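Report of the visiting student (M.T.), summer placement. My assignment was to run the structure pipeline on a short list of targets and document each run. The first record concerns RNA polymerase sigma factor.
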Amino acid sequence: MDSNSEVLDAARAALPGWELLVERYSRLVWSVPRSFRLSYADAADVYQCTWLCLAEHLTRIRQPERLGAWLIRTATRQSIAVVRARGREVPLDRWEPESSLPAPEEVAVTNDRQRRLWTALMTLNERCQRLLCIAAHSPDLSYAQVAEALGMKLGNVGSTRSRCLAQLRRKLEGQL
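After the run finished, the structure tokens were exported:
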């Protein structure tokens, strides 16, 4: 079974298609929560939730060729939900001396740098946003996997990435 359509049909029929889907997209799905720097346990939860969502929506997938993008989008949404939930938690390690905390000015500079980067990134088109996020957080993915996940031609990944990085660089320089 080569095409996503065949694999999805087999998975819907409870044939070995599900195992093929997991084998084919496991690294891609796993890379998304790890790109959010979630703990291993949180990333594993996101990974499982993503596959559960696919199982629940298996009969509603209308564009099998876009399955990689669907999985990335679902894992991203799950990861963002975890990040938001964890952002409300205030970890407190009573054994760590307070001197190990960064100085307020370091926090301010780091926050400002991150805000400017994300602001500039969000002004790019969706394709560039997704491509740069995958490139930054999942460098071990091959161009073929990135092309499939984003619905691009394999030969366009490198040049599109270069153009997107150049646009991002110009936008960041314009913020200074």
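The chain has a mean pLDDT of 83. The two ends are 52 Å apart (CA to CA). I thank the supervising group for their guidance throughout the placement.
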